[in-house]
Amino acid sequence: MVYLFLCIGLLILLGGGKLLVDGASSLALNLGLSQGFIGLTIVAFGTSAPELLVSLNAALDGKGDISIGNVIGSNIANISLVLGISAIVFPIKISSSVFKVDYIVLISSSLIFYFLSLNGIISRFEGFLLLLILILINIYFFFKLGKVDLNELVADLILPLPKWKSISFLILGIFGLYYGADLFVESSIEIASIFGVSERIIGITVIAIGTSLPEMATSIIAALNKKTDIAIGNILGSNIMNILAIIGATAAISPIPVSEGFLNLDFYWMLGLTIVLFPILRSGDRVSRIEGVFLFAAYCTYIFIIL
Q: Closest by alpha carbon to 117, among 252, 262, 265, 245?
């Protein structure tokens, strides 16, 4: 029965995230905000909403390992599993802005996340610091919107709905995220106790992959449709949001303890894979199938090691 609750919780969580994106982005359009700004803020945040609610719920319940594991595991999965599979399906195009903006912000955010964790806890002050960095980045994008093109995928995500329906979707999405996250986390913890698996392992595998499904589906569908220029931006943007928004908001509300296991292994895999992206992004105008196989193999190796 606990596995059924896990699946139900995940479905409610993902459904709530979709309703939140549809409602919030459509409402923003009704209020006169530009599609570019909506795509870079509301839609990007909406696809990371499952991670936020899961991490926040876990932190408030004193399950810090799940909060940290969810973010680190999601970032590892996005770079190696999601990008790897997407490139295997069809080579991923790389635009110059990905390397000049997205990658620089990602590697900087990842290093800041690591150094803030070295003392074993991410405090409220550090959480607010991460949120401040996120706000400054969004302000930068806001003033650069005239130079930012809205990709087709983000345009498709912004549905022109009546205002009453937008508000209804927004409210239903919030409730879905809250109750879905609660059911998903509690079921995961119960499964961990049944098999004697630590919360760190559950957070970094089951929960991380589960909450990364929106990004995974988006990138793989983009690859199947050969619209691969948007897949890499979706992945890197999600990783940035996971660190700055998810860890930032969660720590600002409730300080997050960081266990030694993360500092001895998981952080190094996250940082290592992020650094490995540097030569991959610089090697040409695309992530090749061979590089996709390498990334996918790296994820399989990581899972083999931690299990």
A: 262
Q: One-letter amino acid identity for 241?
A: M
Q: CA 139 to CA 134: how far, in whole Å?
A: 9
Mean confidence (pLDDT) of the chain: 81
Q: What is the pLDDT of residue 159?
A: 62
- Tally DSSP H helices, then E strands, for the chain: 19, 4
If one counts the domains in the chain, the total is 1
CATH code where residue 77 lies: 1.20.1420.30
Domain-embedded: residue 218: yes
Does residue 6 fall inside a structural domain?
no
**Mean pLDDT, residues 222-233 taken together:** 65
pLDDT of residue 264 exceeding 50, the answer is yes
The pLDDT assigned to 229 comes to: 57
Token pair of 166 as six digits:
């937008």
Whether 284 shows a pLDDT value over 90: the answer reads no
Question: Could you tell me if residue 26 is inside a domain?
Answer: no
Burial class (CB in 10 A: 0-12, 13-18, 19+), 35: middle
| pTM beyond 0.85 | no
Domain that holds residue 118: 36-151+198-306
**Local confidence band at 118 (pLDDT 50, 70, 90 cut-offs):** very high
SS3 287: strand
Query: ∠244-250-251 over CA atoms, to 5°?
Result: 85
Please indicate, yes or no, if residue 158 is contained in any of the structural domains. no
